[in-house]
Amino acid sequence: MEAAARPQRQLVRLRGRSYVAFVFVPTVPIVDWLQEIDATIARSPGFFSGRPVVVDLSSVDLSQSGITHLLGSLQERSIRVLGIEGVEEGRLTPNMPPLLTGGRSCGLEPSAPKKVEVTKQPSSLLLETPVRSGQTVIFPDGDVTILGSVGSGAEVVAGGSIHVYGALRGRAMAGVNGHSSARIYCQKIEAELLAIDGFYQTADDIDAALRGKPAQAWLQGNTMRITALN
Fold first, then answer.
1. Which entry of 92, 109, 207, 210 is 20 to 30 Å from 98 by CA?
2. Boundaries of each Septum formation inhibitor MinC C-terminal domain copy (predicted)?
3. Rounded CA gap, 182 and 196, in Å?
4. Cβ neighbours of residue 156 closer than 8 Å, sequence gap 6 or more
5. Helices (H) then strands (E): counts for the chain
6. For residue range 51-71, what is the model confidence (pLDDT) as tens digits?
7. Where are the domains of the chain?
8. What would the mean pLDDT of 42-50 be, rounded to a whole number?
């Protein structure tokens, strides 16, 4: 009697994929830090919606119960944490998000969300097509120039300056590696958020008189200035 043929084993396919995440770096007192988060949500209700979030606890000394309370406070604000870093593994419980390592910080200030990414690129980037809603462009090593527009819900992250030759309706974050001299230029400002070296303004902070017009943004000390582009 012949033995039955053994079914062919199916190999598991593993694929690498990187994501852009907000990294929260809590500071004490935690209550005041949470108020800053609330202020950001109040200005832009959908700011953290659907975004991966990592909590970096390296700046605080929280007990296991303190970490649990912090995670619960973020969940109450509809902020779901996918990972934790900057803490001893023994302080985490099995029900908490996993401990992460190896993320590359892109230098936003501690009270604001940081960006994390792992891709190395050439020294400049030119995009001849629009950045559409839902797309993210990350270029930590230099300027980004976009000949088209940046759609609502899209995101552009650059180590240097950002130049948009069309409308800027999404989010633009320049100077993310600590380059405070970076600038943001666009031919039509309708941005959801502008950030340079960690200092940012949301749509509600931008002068209504500038909406729909050519504009530039730069840092003057620790203050972001947004003016007409003449």
1. 109
2. 127-226
3. 7
4. 131, 136, 137, 144, 146, 150, 162, 164, 170, 171, 172, 173
5. 2, 15
6. 778 999 999 999 999 999 999
7. 21-116, 124-228
8. 71
Q: CA-CA distance, 169 to 191, in Å (whole number)?
A: 4
Is the distance from CB of 71 to CB of 81 less than 8 angstroms? Answer: yes
Instruction: Report the alpha-carbon distance of residue 25 to residue 91 in Å, rounded.
Output: 17
**Superfamily for the 21-116 domain:** ACT domain (3.30.70.260)
Token pair listed for 214: 């050519």
- Locate 71 and state its tokens: 């995670």
Token reading at 176: 């993310």
Residue in the block written with tokens 């902070």: 205
Rounded Cα–Cα distance for residues 167 and 213 (Å)? 9
Q: Which structure tokens are listed for 36?
A: 């800053």
CA-wise closest residue to 161 among 191, 133, 141, 136: 141
Q: Which of 198, 185, 188 is nearest to 144 (CA)?
A: 185
pTM over 0.85? The answer is: no
Q: Evaluate if residue 15 carries a pLDDT over 70.
A: no
Burial code of 151-168, b = ≥16 C-beta within 10 A, e = fewer? bebbbbbbbbbbbbebbb
Give the residue ranges of DSSP H helices in the chain.
30-43, 64-76
| Domain at 124-228: CATH code | 2.160.20.70
